[in-house]
Task: inverse folding
């Protein structure tokens, strides 16, 4: 029989994402609801190894549901990848009498959590927090929806200036290995082309397509490029290529960067974070370990961490088709 959980620790690790604070709040408040002690760990696995803990209660998380970033701070830890680092982390948790850990982050965070759990038979639960939406076992990661809204807002603004000057804009959005942000904002922002890592359009076809839309009467164009796209070496080289091989457009580049990771979480992300926090704590109470909580067909479900880490998310082919038709 699994040990009764009396104390839970929570940390955020890897790149931050809007909704992480709402998830911390949900974990802390669910613990308080069930009379479980809760400690926050600062700076992810770095703080875990250093014992940078803070006792938290329902009031410690007031006023944060609407805040971007993470009050617990985040870090990417090299040391936690070593056995010595994890031994040190385990020592700190044992000294603090912590029975289980909730780790909020992406695949790097989950890889660390899974290895740690296996090595020390320590209960862990993952909450997926990354704007990239690149985790298997949930239709939405925390922060994805907010990032989409932030980017669409930026594209709308860029379109205003693009159409005033008859310009072609390449807009780079985040997505290290995947094109989920690019594909969605491309459709919502009315982009003429969307370049994503999952699909290789090819430079010649890109120029051909832009020429076609220019001839059809478009005076300005937006091309959304996922940062992980493989078509051009980088977005500036892509611009140079189009500049050299296409006439009639003044071409500009806009790299949106880290503004995509900030800002107040959307209503969707706040609700999702709250549901995930409740599910994570209550699953640990039921003796479950090494799972990630996620949204599948509208319901909170558990997916083994191993599957969440090893799986590759698929691009929505229907959205690809919609984007093709819309750019006619
Ligand atoms: O993983 C989320 C993400 O936003 C990626 O899309 C991006 O490549 C990366 O973080 C950038 O992270 P950082 O600049 O914090 O290393």
Result:
């Amino acid at each position: 029989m699994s040990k009764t959980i009396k104390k839970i620790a929570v940390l955020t690790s890897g790149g931050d994402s809007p909704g992480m604070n709402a998830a911390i709040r949900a974990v802390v408040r669910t613990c308080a609801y069930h009379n479980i002690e809760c400690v926050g760990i600062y700076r992810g696995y770095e703080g875990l190894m250093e014992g940078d803990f803070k006792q938290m209660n329902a009031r410690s998380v007031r006023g944060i549901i609407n805040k971007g970033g993470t009050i617990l701070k985040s870090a990417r830890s090299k040391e936690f990848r070593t056995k010595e680092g994890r031994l040190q982390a385990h020592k700190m948790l044992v000294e603090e009498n912590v029975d289980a850990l909730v780790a909020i982050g992406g695949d790097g965070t989950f890889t660390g959590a899974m290895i740690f759990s296996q090595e020390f038979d320590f209960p862990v639960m993952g909450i997926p927090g990354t704007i990239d939406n690149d985790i298997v076992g949930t239709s939405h990661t925390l922060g994805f929806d907010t990032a989409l809204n932030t980017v669409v807002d930026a594209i709308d603004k860029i379109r205003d200036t693009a159409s005033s000057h008859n310009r072609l804009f390449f807009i780079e959005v985040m997505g290290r290995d995947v094109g989920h942000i690019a594909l969605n904002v491309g459709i919502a922002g009315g982009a003429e082309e969307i370049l994503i890592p999952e699909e290789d359009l090819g430079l010649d076809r890109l120029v051909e397509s832009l020429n076609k839309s220019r001839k059809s009467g478009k005076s300005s164009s937006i091309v959304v490029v996922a940062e992980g796209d493989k078509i051009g070496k980088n977005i500036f080289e892509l611009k140079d290529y189009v500049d050299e091989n296409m006439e009639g457009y003044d071409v500009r580049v806009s790299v949106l960067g880290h503004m995509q990771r900030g800002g107040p979480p959307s209503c969707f992300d706040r609700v999702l974070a709250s549901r995930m926090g409740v599910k994570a704590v209550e699953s640990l109470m039921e003796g479950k370990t090494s799972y990630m909580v996620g949204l599948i067909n509208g319901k909170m479900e558990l997916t083994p961490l191993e599957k969440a880490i090893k799986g590759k998310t698929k691009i929505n082919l229907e959205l690809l088709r919609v984007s093709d038709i819309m750019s006619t």
